[in-house]
């Protein structure tokens, strides 16, 4: 079974994804890192040279390839991934989706860090990052809310998330192991 983390930039998808992958003994992938590997350049460079539309097509292609891989994994998606090219349908069909629903002020504080802004082209090019965050979150909620599991707030501890995932039926088996009832 695959686990896909979705949410706004700065919500902690990569950080929590790595921790959950280690907890479950599953491989971890970051979709942005996969895109960089395929595209041969950093995401800000892709946005600058080819534009957002090209990036979103590449993102959708790479997402479908990752979702089709055999075996379980944990994938941290990009903030906009679920919102384009019917990607959320792909995610929900291929595994369990987890929305990290972090409050807007917390996201703003996280995204204000210089290193965060530099690696996020949509934030970096916004004239008013707080307004961009507010408007983007409002537009994306319709997609994020379709996740199978939602974790609200900043206290999404591994224990709390694991309990929510188990309640939703997410019980992964690391690659090569049989489930206990097999």
CATH topology: Rossmann fold
CATH architectural label: 3-Layer(aba) Sandwich
Order of helices and strands: EHEHHHEHEHHHHEH
Proportion of beta-strand residues: 5-15%
Strand order, sheet with most strands: 2-3-1-4-5
Query: CA-to-CA gap between the ends?
Result: 15 Å
Biggest sheet descriptor: 5 strands, parallel
Task: Determine Rg (CA atoms, Å).
Answer: 16 Å
Tally of separate helices: 10
CATH class value: Alpha Beta
CATH superfamily: P-loop containing nucleotide triphosphate hydrolases
Structural class: alpha/beta
- Form type: globular
Write down the overall mean pLDDT: 89
Q: Which parts are unreliable, with pLDDT below 50 for 5 consecutive residues or more?
A: 178-182
Number of strands: 5
How many discrete domains? 1
Cofactor: Mg(2+)
Function: Catalyzes the specific phosphorylation of the 3-hydroxyl group of shikimic acid using ATP as a cosubstrate.
EC number: 2.7.1.71
Catalytic activity: shikimate + ATP = 3-phosphoshikimate + ADP + H(+)
């Amino acid at each position: 079974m695959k686990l896909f983390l979705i949410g706004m930039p700065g919500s902690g998808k990569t950080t929590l994804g790595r921790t959950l992958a280690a907890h479950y003994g599953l491989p971890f992938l970051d979709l942005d890192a996969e895109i960089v590997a395929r595209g041969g350049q950093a995401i800000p460079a892709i946005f600058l040279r080819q534009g957002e539309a090209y990036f979103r097509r590449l993102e959708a292609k790479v997402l479908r390839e990752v979702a089709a891989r055999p075996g379980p994994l944990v994938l941290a998606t990009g903030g906009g991934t679920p919102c384009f090219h019917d990607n959320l349908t792909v995610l929900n069909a291929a595994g369990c989706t987890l929305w990290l629903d972090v409050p807007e002020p917390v996201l703003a504080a996280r995204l204000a860090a210089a290193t965060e802004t530099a690696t996020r082209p949509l934030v970096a090019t916004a004239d008013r990052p707080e307004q961009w965050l507010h408007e983007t979150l409002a537009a994306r909620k319709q997609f994020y809310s379709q996740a199978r599991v939602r974790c609200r707030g900043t206290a999404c501890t591994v224990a709390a998330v694991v309990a929510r995932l188990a309640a939703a039926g997410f019980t992964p088996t690391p690659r090569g192991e049989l489930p206990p009832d097999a």
